[in-house]
């Protein structure tokens, strides 16, 4: 049976590919995407929240169900005028299907 060649100790790993679609915000990746139905002409900033960092409960505007602590999800806000009060937490699947259905919950 043939033996494997031993690996060199000074082997360098290649650098990760440069992702030009998003930018780093703190330790999270951000990107711009079109908005949900009714807001498709607007650009939204989208940030992924991993389950380990999701510590609070939120209400998804796509399905009007709770996003429980520990569930990975997305945070979105309008790119042009968005602030902290404009951020919305979405289930990943609800954000993916945002073009086929409108918001189920409206904020004043």
From TrEMBL:
Organism: Rhodococcus opacus M213
Biased composition (Basic residues): 1-12
Record protein name field: ATP/GTP-binding protein
Highest taxon of the lineage: Bacteria
Region feature (Disordered): 1-41
């Amino acid at each position: 049976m043939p033996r494997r060649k031993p690996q060199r100790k000074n082997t360098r790993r290649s650098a990760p590919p440069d992702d030009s679609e998003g930018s780093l915000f703190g330790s999270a990746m951000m990107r711009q995407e079109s908005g949900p139905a009714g807001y498709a002409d607007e650009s939204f900033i989208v940030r992924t929240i991993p389950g380990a960092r999701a510590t609070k409960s939120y209400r998804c505007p796509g399905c009007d169900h709770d996003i429980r602590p520990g569930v990975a999800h997305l945070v979105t806000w309008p790119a042009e005028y968005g602030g902290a009060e404009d951020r919305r937490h979405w289930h990943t699947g609800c954000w993916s299907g945002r073009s086929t259905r409108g918001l189920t919950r409206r904020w004043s």
